[in-house]
# Entry
Amino acid sequence: MTEAADYKVPEGVQSAAKRALKWISEGKAGDGFTATGRRRASQLAQGGMVSRDTVARMKSYFARHAVDKKAEGFNAGEKGYPSPGRVAWDAWGGDAGQTWVNRIKLD
# Structure
């Protein structure tokens, strides 16, 4: 995928963000969940277009937090699901978001 000024949010990313918003409203985000995560979930859940800067921030988030996928409660069926890390992961678009932004060339 090549660089553009704005990028259309895929449906899978929207779905993950909507799921995160539901979990946030249920109090499953944990004490460390940030206002930035809430804003990103709201933005992605709405769909539409996001900027190059947002894509770059998403890439950075996923690179830093990929390790969170190894924690208990990240996957359905595990004790503590959804963990706060899983809620945050989906707030940023989840696995669909990671796959999407990693295909975009920002260089």
Remarks:
- The longest helix spans residues 11-25.
- The mean pLDDT is 95.
